[in-house]
Description:
Layout: E1 2-5, H1 16-32, H2 40-61, E2 64-74, E3 77-83, H3 86-92, H4 100-105, H5 107-111, E4 116-122, E5 126-128, H6 141-151, E6 157-164, H7 174-180, E7 184-189, E8 198-206, E9 209-211, E10 215-225, E11 231-238, E12 241-249, E13 254-264, E14 269-277, E15 290-298, E16 302-308, H8 313-323, E17 328-334, E18 348-352, H9 360-369, E19 373-376, H10 383-389, E20 393-396, E21 402-409, H11 420-428, E22 432-435, E23 438-441, E24 446-453, E25 456-468, E26 471-476, H12 481-492, H13 496-510, E27 518-522, E28 526-528, E29 534-540, E30 546-547, E31 553-558, E32 563-567, E33 569-571, E34 574-578, E35 585-595, E36 598-609, H14 622-632, E37 635-638, H15 645-651, E38 658-667, H16 672-691
Parallel strand pairs: 3-4, 3-6, 6-7, 7-37, 9-15, 16-17, 16-18, 18-19, 19-26, 28-36
Antiparallel strand pairs: 1-2, 2-38, 4-5, 8-10, 10-13, 11-12, 11-14, 14-15, 20-23, 21-22, 21-24, 24-25, 25-26, 27-29, 29-30, 29-34, 31-32, 31-35, 33-34, 35-36
Helix pairs in contact: 1-2, 2-16, 6-7, 7-14, 8-13, 11-13
Amino acid sequence: MQLLFSVTWGTVSGWWTPVCLLLGLGYGWMMYRQPVSLGKRARYALFAARSVTVFLLSFLLISPLIRSVAYNPQKPLVLIAQDNSESIRLFGLSSKEKDFTGALSQLKQQLGDQYDVREFNFSGDLKDGLSDKFNGKQTNISSAIHQLNERYVNQNIGALILATDGLYNQGSDPHYEAKNLKTSIYTIALGDTVAKRDLLIGNVNYNKTAYLGNDFETEVLAEAYQAKGESIHLTVDEDGKQVFSQTDVVTSNNFRRTIPMKLNADKKGTRKFTINIASVKNEVSIQNNTETIYVNVLDARQKVLLLYNGPHPDISVIKQSIESNRNYEVKASLLSDLPKLKLSDYSLVILYQTASNSSGELQSFITKSKVPVWYIAGAQTDLPQLNSEQKLVQINSGRSDMQEVFAQHVQEFSLFTLSDSTKKKLSELPPLLAPYGNYSSSGTGQLLFKQRIGEVATPYPLLSFSDENGRRMAVLTGEGIWRWSLSEYNTYGSHAALEELFGQAVQYLTANSNHQRLRVYAAKNVFDEGENVILNAELYNQALELVNTPDIRIELKSRAGKTYSFLFSRNGQSYQLDAGTLPVDEYTYSASTKLGNETFNATGQLTVKPLNLETRQSAADHQLLYDLAKQSGGQMLQRSQISQLADLIKKNENIKTVVYEDKRYSDLIDLKWIFILIVGALSAEWFVRKREGEV
């Protein structure tokens, strides 16, 4: 404990302590310098009490501090992450090795109280505790390492024990994520690196959307291990009818062949195709011989018109992002070529740095048809013209300067939903260029993104949406979307966030183009097994304004005949339902509600498909486990060597208890004994003087 001095009035130092002491002694001397009717000892005692009291009171005025230092030891964390995916059960363990989780659980006792052992299991996500169920439908090793690193950031992580077969089918390469975990990784090698006798479907490449009457290309990767001389007989069935068949001879014990095929989209709706490879004798697994794909067959695509005054790199990015959803076809055209277009063919008009009133024909079409419009502002935008045409966003600027603005997501936005990963990515992307000026928003609109200038969050709108008088509208107040496209691809290797943003925005803007009063639609037509089924609903009054006063009920019925009933929850002006996970099957749904005296119904269909990712590879990847251990200073062990882990960790000099120094500062006046001492001294002095008749 150390006494320090703070600065309250000017410069204060410890040299004031003698002054305070002299002040206390002087005050005591003034009080008791004259002879009083007290004994000599009593007078000296009262002098001391008064001097101490005055000294303490004056000393407290200079605000002295007490510094205390505490030393907190933190035991090294030993994290155990165990693979709980299906591949471990199918290919990874013999009957004698199934209790390896029991051996891992004993590590806590073997290490003793000097280590803090935490246990986890993972497949697609990280969960607490070890598990011997091995029922995970996918494996994401990188995500498990990332979540552990985030959960225990800035803590004393001594070692990570990773028990897996090294096979992953989700996420990025674990090598990169492991580099961020600054600790030793000990890998437990599960599975067998020698592929067993097996015929399987390694992968299927296909378009999830096709158009009625067209053929669509599909590629099947057929694989065969330890089956030289056998034949791969591949068939494709639709509704029990065979639509494709091909036989290939296996020419090696490590055989792979891509089989192309053309399938016909002859029926509208979600079509189910079952791809199968006939099994052979002594196969290790026949679960990976069958794969089911679902293709959404559309009658026609909705058309989007993208108009602009001059070339700009944003144009191609917007077009590609929207067309990543095959429900939409984008026509990008110069405004001067407008007379050549048939405007009635389009369900949405995007005006890139232009306005509809620059063309009488376009303005008349937008006004009469109530077609949705998306305005995108930039350096070439005529701001007064933009302000006069729409009231959603007003930009008042006295100069033509541009400023860099980042996207800041607005939590209250409820017209549609973006995934958490997309929100995070968009907030980290480079800035757009927005016109300099003062911005105001319509009270009837909703902001998806506000502008963030540097580190300063502003109320200025970046991307806004509205639905007024039956027409939906959006305004984006910035250009430079091409920067987002390049940055996202360089960082994440895809354009998923940008495609999701434009896909959801365009879907919302075109949603009421058919003027259905009740619309119910699934977040997607096909959900993976174990994925939450999300449905959205919108209800419109006679003025085509969104309302959500009445309840909307929905029933989902599987082909197996089981019925699930739900009630939609209100979400902003619309409705949303999280139906949770549903069994693998094909479902039809029927929703109903009543608004006033009118009853509305909506129907549709969705599919929950099985995940066969874990059955596609039987040979473990121990090379990955060896590399992870070597680059981190750890070691790869076999299942039979788990008992050696405790000794290896104890001998690792880098895994040790860390002592953290915790310094704390507090005011001397906060010490209760100081107050007690002052009150005690004053009370004792008063009592003695009272008794002696001096008060």
